[in-house]
Structures are given as C-alpha cells and as structure tokens.
Amino acid sequence: MFGASSDDALAPEGEFDPSTEPTPGEFLDGHDVLTGDAHVAFHDTTRALFEERGVYDMTFGYNLADLNRDTRHSSAGYRYAEAADDPDVLLAEFTPTTPFCPQSDTLTRGSFRAWNGLADRHGYDLVRVRVSPMHQRSADINDALADMEAEFRETGELPDGDASPGEASAPPTRDETTSTDAPF
C-alpha cells in the first residue's frame, strides 16, 4: 500500500468490522463495550463532531474518526463503552498507531473537547477519554485528561485544552530566548 492515498486505505463507512477496530483496552474493562450498530452510530456522530471541531490527524491528513477505518492501522483508533455504573457516561479509549505517537496528547484533548462541547448531539452527559497504556506517555496524558474531566464535571465548562489547570504559560518572548549563532 505504499504510495496509496489515505482515501484508498479506508474501509467503507457505516460498518462494524472487528478486524479494523482496536481491541478494547483496560480503560473499558468491566463496561458495556459498544459493538455493531451501537458502535457505528456513535462513531458516525463522532465523525461529524470531529469535522466541526477540526479534530484531524495531521500525519494522515484526515478526520481522526477515520483512523478506525484505516486498513493500514487496524489496531488503532477509538473504542467506546457505556459506563457500567452510569449509562449517561461514555468511555472512549484511543489507541494510537505507535507507542510514541507525538499527537496522542493533542488528539485526545481535542476529542474530549469535541465530545463534551457538543454533548447534546450524542446523548451522553459526559464522555471520558483516555489513551491506551501502550503509549509511552499514557500516564501523563491520562492524568491531564482526568484533570480536564474533573474541571468539566465541577464547572460544566470545557477547560482550556492547551494545558492542565495551573500549568498554562506563555511561550518565551524573543528577548527571553537563548540566542545562538545557528542560522535556524
């Protein structure tokens, strides 16, 4: 498939094919994992929300929801489950294409903001988001996502997606940066 366009590698929309879906991970253990029509319905809504909110995988140049359909990465994408103790809460676990995917933090934060910013469109009061533990920074990313979730539950407002509470800082000004003689 080398050289094929992203569109050439996408399985058809509107189908649930376990061979092109990531295996549900530990975040979804003990919960009602969506399969079949339930998975397809939520994922179709996800595609529309991600389109509106610009949740795009820049590596592949497509809406992040299409990662689930990308036959080149059949173990990557999102899986969903309704929380066992609260059917108004959905859990979403993101499995990136590699354990070192540099976009995992940005993509999961963007996903959280898209789902919870437009909750009236999917029927859940809250969508909890985590990255698979296979990612090398999963603990840090998941801690930041848990902080976003806690702030959202407490205030009902979406927290700033750029930094964890208390960690926001402006980039250094030109005068504050260390100068080098390097041309770049």
From TrEMBL:
Chain intervals for the UniProt region annotation (Disordered): 1-26, 148-184
Protein name stated in the entry: DUF7998 domain-containing protein
Pfam families the record matches: DUF7998
Lineage top rank: taxon: Archaea
Record organism: Halobacterium jilantaiense
Residues annotated as domain DUF7998: 12-158
Cited InterPro entries: DUF7998
